[in-house]
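User: structure tokens for Acyl-peptide hydrolase, please.
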Amino acid sequence: MKSFKMLKSLLFLLLIFSSGSFSSAQSFKMEDIISYPLASELTSCASGSKIAWTYNDQGKRNIYVAQGPDFKPRKLTSFDEDNGQQLSSISISADGKWVVFVKGGEHSGNHDNSLTVNPSSLIAMPIVEIFSVPFAGGEAKTLTEGDYPVISPKSDRIAFIKGGQIWQVSPDGSPAAKILFESKGTNSSVQWAPDGSGLAFVSSRGDHSFIGIFADKEKTIKWISPSFAKDDMPKWSPDGKKITFIRRPASGGLPDSILPRKHNAWNILVGDIATSTVQKIWSAPKTLSGSYPTTDGGANLMWSSAGRITFSSYHDGWPHLYSIKPEGGEPLLLTPGNFMCEYIEMSHDGKWLIFAANTGPDVLDLDRRHIVRVPVDMSKMEVLTPGTGVEAFPVVTGDGANVAMISSSAILPPQLAVMSFNANQKIRILDNSLLPASFPTGKLVTPKQVTFKASDGTLVYAQLFEPAADAVKSKKPAVVFVHGGPPRQMLLGWHYGDYYANTYAINQYLASQGFLVLAVNYRLGIGYGFEFHKPANAGSNGGSEYLDVKAAGEWLAARPDVDKKKIGIYGGSYGGYLTAMALGKDSKLFAAGVDVHGVHDWAFVNEGSKSAPDAALAAKVVYKSSPIAYVNTWMSPVLFIHGDDDRNVYFSQSVDLARRLEQRNIPFEQLIIPDDTHHWMKFSNQVKVDQAIAEFLVRKLMK
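Assistant: Done. Predicted tokens:
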């Protein structure tokens, strides 16, 4: 009997790999739905109509450019290997002659961002280098080793960071790169003066940071009102005489409690370059929602040509845009309403803010993104891209005539698009031919918005992917997908971020297999206001967000078309953490799961806080908020996936949990990706991971 069961399992696996499918419901391969070119790093020139971006086409990352009025994409580089080397910091010189970018590194990590990555396991480590290439076409030239390049407004120099110091090089590489000056601390956030005669920067010095001004002529550094504080985000006035920046409290002080939520204070200051004196023009309200914003771009501080300073704040309960006079006063709310603003850019003429927001004429726009514009000096916003699509990362061309963006839909992945910079204009995808012929556009489903309540009454939003009615049994297996972040929001269409664009594709694939898939937007996520984003007793302080994940499983189990004994779960990063919590706490509800580079022990979060008044209680809460606390009740099968050069979640988090399960004779499976990071820099590794997720869930839940 045992041999017969083994033979059945072997035949099942042979069917999987010989047919290239996991079930009779499948109509396309995993590679078909993830092999599209993903657009990112969109930028525009300060003059004219030139734009540039990257396409990651099955791991082959290249720079593309286009120019109005036709905006026909043109490939500018020839990096034709899947070697895991990221392209970032793309910019076009103000005169339109040069495209500058960085090749190499990992720029989305929480630690070790300065280190190079080597996911191809080459015997010689790659280095992080700055390149330039003529916009008109030509050979991409290596300028120097370095990172975070910023081109001067005169287009003659590039400032960049190397070893925590600021260097410069010319766009054509001649003369060679040289250090501009040496300064204590780690220097960053370079901002050229409007006339290119010097630059502002941030000097981080551990528990405090300063705003510095380097003047070309004097070859001196001037510090703008140094204090016992952390100063950041310098922005020049249009005339170059003043600078605005953010000031927050420095580290240190009396030991504070760990568990309660706290206000994180911040202020906006304006400094005079000539005298180094400053004036505080605005202080955030001393409320929880008045804390420094943690959505994309933080305060998003900018100084417009219209004589107003613009910024983001959460103090009315939503991440909105405001503007204020340089001398202070009451800030003007530019974007009233129950929605969030992110990926905020200012038009090159300084008159408009353009951004992505989850608002529009349709109530379902709460789970989408559309491009919105608003003048910097009046509350008169316009949604430029209403409809059922998802649009993000807008940039206005230098001539102010067009806006470029990343656009997607429920059935089309993120692509480059343009439209006239006016309301009610049609979006134009730049080149539909870039999608491979095998892409299964006609075989995908449109997710539906659903809501349900957690056990404590919290309203939870989710998107439901339902397989075709004729492709599945009446009782379907189901999967809960848990996003990472946690400040993310899954949408009613293809996600604009590369990591979550990939998971959206996996969800579509699982639906094609016959799974009913529920992508849950749990508390701690963005898009639903401050109290949802910053809830009490969440994360390491109680894990209250797990109630939303459990509610998602129970919502599926209550459906008459779901086999409640075959509900699985998967997620990556923070989603991996919540997957592990689900399998440890509720194995009776979640029959199997895939934990991709999840956090499993929160103890490291409060390391060094032993002197806090509530340290003993916090230690207990942190432990109970961690998956390691529930190993004894863990029964469901799990697949762990982790890259061992992860700069977001330490590889040791998975090593430790796996060892704990092993010591209790709890079986698990594992897929280790040597030398790759949290974001699967190599496409071949991405394929391997995606296929492993699907194969495990099918094998455990489709029997």
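User: Anything notable?

Assistant: DSSP finds nine helices and 40 strands in the chain.
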